[in-house]
Specification:
The chain is α/β, with parallel strands linked by helices and about 240 residues long. It has ten helices and ten strands. A six-stranded mixed β-sheet has the order 6-7-8-3-9-10, with helices on both faces. Keywords: Amino-acid transport, ATP-binding, Cell membrane, Membrane, Nucleotide-binding, Transport.
């Protein structure tokens, strides 16, 4: 696999204090990596730091180019899409209008992208969005809004998708639908850095697991290695 993202000695803080204290990890092209940890461990902050949304220090290299100091829109144009926990849809616009806002022409897509995402692909992946394409996005259910946020991000044709707690508060049937969609996205070669509280879902999707604790990566390994280390899970994951 080709190295896509390289994070070194990443520190990030808010007014209330420091959250990340020297985070180091790599992510390869077409790889799905789950970023795990307890609430408050800094998982969401890590995604925001990559997107240039919080104060940070350290090195973030994407396709061998530095992201440090770039505005968020430039990072998105470089080929990274961010799906925030709050979904960030435009409530008064229709579903289709939201999707069209995310659509990038082929010339602006990063060079690693081999398959273009078009509006019909979004509707094929999320049929409910096609059925409700003329409905105001604010009238959608929580699960439908999550699908809309994810579909809009894909229409930017990213090489890397940063996804923050996509199944939070959703019904089991919707979670199952989202898992299937993520598996399809994975098959199309989009790399994913996934923050997910549901360990079993992450286990079904991720190729590799990062465990964040006290602002640092305390584990970087495979599904089997994580499952075999009960003491690690108890110390850093279980409540």
């Amino acid at each position: 696999m080709n190295n896509l993202l390289q994070v070194r000695d990443l520190h990030a803080s808010y007014a209330k204090g420091q959250v990340l204290r020297g985070v180091n990890f790599d992510l390869n092209s077409s790889e799905v990596v789950a970023l795990l940890g307890r609430n408050g461990a800094g998982r969401s902050t890590c995604l925001k730091a990559i997107m240039g949304m919080v104060e940070m220090k350290g090195s973030i290299q994407y396709q061998s180019a530095s992201l440090v100091g770039l505005p968020s829109y430039a990072i998105a144009q470089a080929g990274i899409a961010y799906v925030p926990e709050d979904r960030a849809i435009f409530a008064k616009l229709s579903v289709e209008q939201n999707l069209l806002l995310g659509l990038k022409p082929a010339h602006s897509v990063s060079s690693n992208t081999t398959t273009q995402w078009q509006l019909h692909d979004a509707y094929a992946l999320f049929p409910v969005l096609k059925q409700r394409r003329h409905v105001a996005a604010g009238a959608l259910s929580g699960g439908e809004q999550q699908m809309l946020s994810l579909a809009r991000s894909l229409l930017g044709n990213p090489d890397l998708l940063l996804v923050d707690e996509p199944t939070e508060g959703l019904a089991p049937q919707v979670v199952k639908q989202l898992l299937h969609c993520f598996q399809t996205i994975k098959q199309r070669g989009v790399a994913i850095l996934l923050v997910e509280q549901k360990l079993q879902l992450a286990m079904q999707l991720a190729d590799r697991f990062l465990l964040l604790g006290h602002g640092q990566i305390v584990f970087d390994g495979s599904r089997e290695e994580l499952l075999d280390n009960e003491l690690l899970r108890k110390e850093w994951l279980e409540v």
